[in-house]
Amino acid sequence: MHRRAATFSIVALILVAVLPPSAHALVIDAFDDDQGPVPASSWTSVAATVPGGVRDLVNSTSSDGAVEIASGAFTFRQPSSGGLDGYVVYNGDAAPFEEVPAQLDLDLLADGADAFAIDLISATDWFSISLDLFDTSGTPLSFGEPWLQRPSGGPRQIVLPFASPDEGTGDLAHIGFIRFNVVAAPGSEVSFGSLSTITAVPEPGSGLLLAVGLVAMARARAGRRG
What we know:
This protein has 226 residues and is an alpha+beta fold.
């Protein structure tokens, strides 16, 4: 009996270990529609997978081809001289610099989402990212300190919780405009695989399974002592 309880507890703990720590709610962009490379100080616009909107790809640097989306990756190549950033804009028209009127009206809280997830593919040096949002009334929100330098490497997932915006009080249930900003070390390159919302808090079922496993293990130990 004690051996059976111990076996069950081990199985439960293994299942918790292999369950994903988060679940995707809304994939804002998987970067599977090629766009660019974008000439210096320019931008391009294509129909996006975000409902009711378009995706604008902006290269604000002085280097041709610094910004590109290809083969499932959004890549930013910072010129060796440094300088400005590259960014992706999702809105309801083809003008990337107009936050209002913003016409997407996305519910980022759907399916219990509580954070943004940005999948980093690789970075050859430090980089910084931030997300600027406006709701449909024009009220702003921002996530990700734009001057926080993140280390090179990858792949890894970067999570920006909804609970701690850097500024603003916009309504996440009615988002009309999203801007994903990237800056990097001079002469470096950084690539991202997707931008999505996730449920970062563990699912209740996972927590329950963990608790059952621990209780079963404790009972097995108590039985051996008895």
